[in-house]
Amino acid sequence: MSADSALKGPEPAIVAANQAARSLLPFEDRRDLDDVGRGFLGTVDQREITDRDGRVVWSLDAYGFLDADCPDTVHPSLWRQSGLVARHGLYEVAEGVHQVRGFDLSNMTVVEGERGILVIDPLLSVETAAAALALYRSHRGDRPVTGVLYTHSHVDHFGGVKGVVTAEQVGAGLPVIAPQGFLAHAVSENVYAGTAMARRAAYMYGAALPKGTHGQLGAGLGQTTSTGTVSLIPPTVEITHTGHQLTVDGIRMTLQLTPDTEAPAELNVHLPDRAALCMAENATHTLHNLLTLRGAEVRDPRVWAKYLTEAIQLFGDHSDVAFASHHWPVWGRERVLTHLTEQRDLYAYLHDQTLRMINEGLTPLEIAERIQLPPALEQAWHTHGYYGSVSHNTKAIYQRYMGWFDGNPAHLWEHPPTEAATRYVDFMGGADEVLRRAHQSYADGDFRWVAQVVDHVLFADPGNTEARELQADALTQLGYGSENGTWRNFYLTGALELRHGLVGTPTVTASPDVVSALSLDQLFDSLAIRLDGPAGWDADITVRWNVHGTEPITWRLHNGVLTHVLGEGPAAAGPDLEVTLSEADLRAVLLGTLSATDLEHRTGVRATGDVGKLTELLGHLGTPDPYFAIVTP
User: Fold this and answer.
1) pTM exceeding 0.90
2) How far apart are CA 565 and CA 554, in angstroms?
3) Side by side, which strands form the sheet with 561-566?
4) 121: nearest Cα among 143, 93, 139, 101
5) pLDDT below 70 — which residues of the chain?
6) Which helix (H) or strand (E) holds 100?
7) CB under 8 Å, gap of 24 or more: what pairs does 349-358 form?
8) How far is it, in rounded angstroms, from Cα 57 to Cα 50?
9) Please, are residues 29 and 39 in contact by the beta-carbon 8 Å criterion?
10) Exposure of 592 by Cβ count < 10 A (0-12 exposed, 13-18 middle, 19+ buried)?
11) How many CB atoms lie within 10 A of CB 433?
12) 433-439, long-range: CB within 8 Å, 24+ apart, which pairs?
């Protein structure tokens, strides 16, 4: 980002809106400011966490600018939240329970047992997890890790596991605990649509933005994602029902399964001997996403609210502190109950009122503009939309129940963006006239309209320099006015790419560990997604894999579809090539590290038929582009 664009100031309309927000928000409530520093034991002197090549994957000093007063380029509520989340170090939550916060997007929790420690949610990267564990040990002693618990299936809660334990330790009996369905969801989310999700995550977390008052200052849930090594060790203990009692190294736990809440596979953990309740990511200091802007399955706010009610019922009378995998804890039984109740009411209200308006015939855009939270919830800081938002969450609820179509037949068969844009601009009198009017809208402070209408000019003529600059300016102002951290990052990253071209996708979650954890069924499915269907319309190729110790797997490309079937039967008849091999060799072929030609000469592999057919089939698989355009065609 150039110095001029980095320092572009806020327009009067944004300054006025941000100033108005200060008078509407409960800044007199300073309990979070006290809580965020409670139990602080210290942090590290080494302010940069690097990988083995010396590349910085996390900086603890990057957000030091947040100690100043809020500038006009940031919504005051987001500034407050970002300053709280940026605090880093080791904190005592309860006796024998500590958290390392500010070392990644998420928190790592350490529970002390009889011989060692249970690590809950070992961050996103191996490097940040190792640094967090080292910080804990520098204050609490060199206690061995005697267990690991993943609260849910998102990568920032398991990716750093090899920074705290080794696969050999787990193989020797160290338990890795996770909710039912964890592995399938953890690997499929990061592989099936992983390329597109990672590209949009670069926008969501503002990875390419300079950190500062005019750029990236947080994502509401945490500051940003670390960019180190993502690892995965599959769980060895699966929690299958609520009420499951488990003891690890003398640490007693009661588990509550909460599937289809913040993640498809998730659980809460009660520590009865500490009167401490881990709410995973089901109750944090923000309105969470029902549909994350990077993309995911739509979450269910109805069951989310029901599980929060269940947590209150199960643990409310026995919890003196509630903590989560992000943000800071809440202490005191009454405050814990209030926090959980308000979080429950938040998701229930959005669900029920969106459904009420759906049944009155309102569309997603109309609902998002009309809905308002009750005043009591608006005055609670933890219900604000720093990560999720009321606007995009209500649209997610609509999508969950009604799908993409709003019922208006005029929207049933619209032109795609570029074709529609060309027609819009022509109807509006050409690009020059659209931009003339858009400049006036910009001067009037109607940045939403500028972004909407100039988008048509860009998609009709992406090389239009004036349109690119005006759109970038409008997106910059919208970013400056956003209370939501991820909205700010989307707007400012869009402006960055319009000014300077594609900035890339720095985080790769489909790491070798994650890919290796795919079942063969998932691996075949992930390859089918990569098939160039039209290029394979006329191909008809069948390959049978005889994998040692399993039933035969038949792979067929037919009608532009790549299918696989286990066992014998009509769908598995007549292979062009039959190969007997180990699972390791099959995975090597499917992942592209072993070619069809090399396969023929590999010891222990027997191939019967035309090996060229396998080469032909693999040639129909494309490689996803992690740098596709977003704000231009």
Assistant:
1) yes
2) 5
3) 561-566, 553-558, 540-547, 577-581, 606-609
4) 101
5) 1-7, 505-510, 569, 571-572
6) strand 97-101
7) 349/373, 349/374, 349/377, 350/290, 350/301, 350/390, 350/393, 350/394, 350/397, 351/301, 351/302, 351/305, 351/397, 354/394, 354/397, 354/398, 355/397, 355/401, 358/398, 358/401, 358/402
8) 5
9) no
10) exposed
11) 11
12) 435/464, 435/466, 435/467, 435/470, 438/470, 439/470
Tell me which residue of 392, 223, 366 sits closest to 301, measured CA to CA. Answer: 392
Least Cα distance to 317 among 278, 284, 275, 283 occurs for: 275
- Angle at which helix 194-204 crosses helix 182-191, to 10 degrees, equals 80
Model confidence pLDDT, tens digit, residues 43-93: 999 999 999 999 999 999 999 999 999 999 999 999 999 999 999 999 999
What tokens appear for 51 in the block? 């990988």
249 neighbors 114 (Cβ within 8 angstroms): yes
How far apart are alpha carbons 31 and 330 in whole angstroms?
9
345-381 residue pLDDT tens: 999 999 999 999 999 999 999 999 999 999 999 999 9
What DSSP letter does each residue of 191-257 carry, written as one string?
Answer: HTTHHHHHHHHHHHTTTTSPBSTTSB---SSSS----S-------SEEE-STTEEEEETTEEEEEEE
Q: Which two tokens stand for residue 296?
A: 């995911």
Question: Strand pairing partners for 91?
Answer: 40, 99
pLDDT in the model for residue 574: 82
DSSP annotation of 135: H
Q: Are 112 and 99 in contact (CB under 8 A)?
A: no
Residue 582, both tokens: 């180990």
Q: Which two tokens stand for residue 547?
A: 């994998």
User: CA end-to-end span of the chain, whole Å?
Assistant: 21
Q: How far is CA 298 from CA 292, 372, 373, 394, in A?
A: 8, 21, 21, 11
All residues at 6 or more sequence positions from 540 whose CB lies less than 8 Å from its CB, including other chains: 556, 557, 558
Distance CA 471, CA 200 (A): 19
Structure tokens at 612: 């060229």
